[in-house]
Specification:
Layout (H helix, E strand, L loop, with lengths): L16 H9 L5 H5 L5 E3 L15 E15 L3 E8 L4 E6 L4 H6 L5 E11 L2 E5 L2 E4 L13 E3 L8 H13 L12 H6 L5 H9 L7 H6 L3 H26 L11 H10 L5 H14 L6 E6 L5 H14 L3 E5 L3 H15 L6 E4 L5 H13 L3 E4 L13 E7 L6 H8 L10 E6 L5 H7 L4 E5 L9 E7 L3 H13 L3 E5 L7 H18 L5 E4 L5 H13 L4 E4 L12 E7 L6 H8 L9 E7 L5 H12 L3 H12 L1 H4 L2 H4 L16 H14 L4 H8 L10
Parallel strand pairs: 4-6, 9-14, 9-15, 10-12, 10-13, 11-12, 13-14, 16-21, 17-19, 17-20, 18-19, 20-21
Antiparallel strand pairs: 1-8, 2-3, 2-5, 3-4, 5-6, 5-7
Helix pairs in contact: 6-8, 8-24, 8-25, 9-11, 10-11, 20-21
Length: 691
């Protein structure tokens, strides 16, 4: 029997070129793909339920005799068929029906149907059930197994997917789908054989525990999740090895510049900053490229740590590039680094997308000539940017940069031969389990101390019916010489509407707060306009800034001590935490008002309650992960990271330590199994994180 990974779907009955094309759109090209295309949920069609025992909300198979069929004229014309089985009556309602259908459901016809039971105007109803009239003596058999419901796409029906999986299952055996988990490992981690797990998940027996399957706790799911997480781990290690195999310039620990920088700084770094700084200094002195992720809470002083790393590279005679995801943030870094490096006699170059014409040409020339420090946005990745001898790249806010971009950096290294060291900073603390898997190609350091002088932010929840009081509170804060932010959050995913909402709020607040200077900033404005408004706010010329979430990352205004966030229930906790971190940067007591729209859902209440209880980013991140899952949290919708088929990082977090050990063992003892596993789960040879 040939391996199913090599057999095309066209080998199945009924699959011609047109259907094969539809299947390829969803990534189903071989029989192995069809077997790994697992059901989302199951329906129980293995037993007939008496009408008298039906409950609303249940999916059930019902059998009975038609006692009447009428066309009813309500809001919409419908065909109402009444069904009786001696234990009770049920109505079947069809909004789309033909005359032939009506004729086929005459009084006295025996019918078996399936669908969701709903309460309706005539008692219990099923809308548009799947049904068939029973003719002849012998009723057709009920299903022997639970009915799988597959993820579909346009043009593929459940019926069709069931037929295909049925045919693929008929060819499934231990040889046609090799199990790449060695017997010893399977035994050690108590994992079932692969073909059994797949067979079970496609056709669970009638006595299967539906709840267990729905929650993903079943042994068959467990077996596949383990293999997938193992593959992900192996893929990340491969990525790491290929990075480590590169050469990087070894930068000796700097003596002179860091000391001068410290003298000018005016405050002493925290213990955590010193510890992480020492880890980075050691990494930079090695011949293989550093890949280190520094996570610290909002305001933990990541930038100072980055400055120490930069000085080590500059003292060794190399260039450093710092990249930030937005122009506002890049500009802030540019101001900071210019302030720090100028007294040391070092120039800082600046490159962003908005630099045009002569200014741009001058910046490119400055970089190519070897400006020691270069700050910018993604524009630093562009081909035309040539570095003289780049040895360190600092990337701020990792979740906005995919692995792809990190790989593009390699080409920018010294002479195109030596790969630059990479220091990645994020203010979104990532729970340990997630960091272990999502960033298995990075070493992690944590800044877990806040610098002295930062005040915790007091967070309160206020319903938007009390909006007037909140406006009054803003007025009195502004009268005391304080500054405030008013943040308008996303309206149903539409940037345009959010900007409109921000504009309306700006007009309302400007009218309500006569005599106060109000500014507006949103995503539709040009970078230069945004920067000008931000600058006015920083200088204290504006007292209130109405903004969309563009200010989430990294704006530093010490005098701002009040923040109002509208509809906070629409944002993730990590995002709320980031926003809240914009206040509390000075010594004054700071407040954050979450202006929500009642009623809040149970989860909504839970989430906003966490914001009120704690200011610790790591606790918030743990909770965020629990409530939203990893994709949302890491912004992976954008980066394509962690698109798992079976595994779920949150649910399967307890598997991760075992998976890491198994990956280690597999690499050492069965290295020949690594490539087939990667091939199975990551087709076309892509890596996780490179999607």
């Amino acid at each position: 029997m040939s391996e199913l990974s090599t057999v095309s779907v066209t080998a199945l009955k009924g699959v011609g070129a047109a259907l094969a094309e539809k299947l390829a759109k969803v990534g189903l090209e071989t029989l192995q793909d069809i077997l790994f295309h697992l059901p989302l949920r199951y329906q129980d069609r293995t037993r007939i339920v008496p009408i008298g025992a039906l409950r609303p909300g249940q999916d059930a198979v019902v059998e009975g005799t038609v006692s009447g069929a009428d066309v009813v004229m309500g809001k919409r014309r419908s065909l109402l068929v009444r069904l009786n089985d001696g234990s009770g009556t049920l109505s079947l309602r069809f909004y789309h029906f033909s005359n032939a259908q009506k004729e086929g459901l005459k009084r006295g016809t025996q019918v078996r149907c399936y669908g969701e039971i709903r309460p309706g105007s005539s008692g219990l109803e099923i809308y548009h059930p799947e049904y068939r009239a029973l003719t002849g003596d012998e009723p057709p058999a009920v299903e022997q197994t639970l009915t799988p419901i597959y993820p579909t796409t346009e043009g593929l029906t459940q019926q069709r997917l069931r037929q295909l999986s049925e045919q693929a299952l008929a060819r499934l055996g231990p040889h046609s789908l090799p199990d790449w988990l060695p017997r010893e490992l399977a035994k050690e981690y108590q994992l079932a054989p692969l073909d059994q797990a797949i067979r079970y998940l496609h056709r669970p027996p009638p006595d299967a525990d539906l709840e267990e399957l729905a929650e993903g706790r079943h042994w068959a799911q467990h077996r596949l999740a383990f293999e997938e997480l193992l593959t992900h781990q192996l893929s990340m290690q491969r990525l790491r090895e290929s990075a480590r195999a590169q050469q990087a310039p070894a930068l000796p620990v700097a003596r002179k510049l860091p000391q001068q920088f410290l003298d000018n700084l005016g405050f002493k770094p925290t213990g955590a900053q010193q510890r992480v700084g020492a880890e980075i200094a050691y990494d930079l002195s090695q011949h293989e490229p550093m890949l280190r992720l520094v996570q610290g809470d909002v305001g933990a002083g990541k930038t100072v740590v980055a400055a120490f790393a930069a000085l080590q590279a500059i003292e060794a005679g190399y260039q450093v590039a710092l990249m930030a995801p937005t122009e506002i943030l890049a500009e802030q870094h540019f101001i900071n680094f210019t302030r720090w490096l100028q007294p040391l006699g070092l120039e800082t170059a600046w490159l962003a997308g908005k630099l045009k014409g002569k200014a741009r040409a001058a910046a490119l020339e400055q970089i190519a000539a070897g400006a020691p420090m270069v700050v910018g946005t993604h524009a630093l990745f562009q081909d035309e940017v040539r570095f003289r001898n780049l040895a360190l790249a600092i990337i701020d806010e990792q979740h906005r940069f995919g692995v792809q971009q990190r790989l593009a950096l390699r080409q920018k290294g010294v002479g195109g031969r030596l790969s630059p060291h990479q220091l990645i900073m994020t203010a979104t603390p990532i729970p340990r389990t997630l960091a272990m898997s999502a960033y298995a190609d990075l070493d992690t350091s944590i800044l877990d101390e806040l610098p002295p002088g930062r005040t915790p932010v007091n967070t309160v929840l206020v319903a938007d019916s009390r909006r007037f009081e909140v406006v009054e509170r803003v007025r009195s804060a502004c009268n005391e010489g304080r500054q405030a932010y008013w943040v308008c959050t996303l309206i149903e995913e539409s940037e345009e509407l959010t900007c409109q909402a921000a504009e309306t709020t700006y007009e309302d607040l400007s009218a309500a707060l006569v005599g106060q200077r109000v500014g507006l900033i949103h995503g539709r404005m040009k970078p230069a306009e945004k920067a000008a408004v931000m600058d006015q706010f920083k200088q204290g010329h504006l007292q209130l800034l109405v903004a969309t979430t563009v200010i989430e990352v990294g704006v530093d205004v010490p005098n701002a001590s009040l923040m109002i966030i509208e509809n906070p229930e629409r944002l993730g906790l990590a995002q709320l935490h980031q926003l809240r971190g914009r206040v509390g940067r000075g010594s004054a007591a700071s407040h954050c008002v979450l202006l929500y729209h009642p009623p809040l859902s149970q989860i909504g209440r839970e989430r906003l309650g966490i914001m009120r209880e704690t200011c610790d980013g790591f606790i918030i991140a743990e909770k965020d992960l629990e409530l939203r899952g990893p994709g949302e949290m890491l912004g992976t919708r954008q980066t394509g990271l962690l698109q798992f088929k079976v595994a779920d990082l949150m649910r399967d977090a307890d598997l991760l330590p075992a998976v890491r050990d198994a990956a280690q063992a597999l690499q050492e003892q069965w290295p020949q199994h690594v490539s087939p596993l990667l091939e199975r789960w990551l087709r076309h040879g892509q890596q996780y994180g490179q999607v």
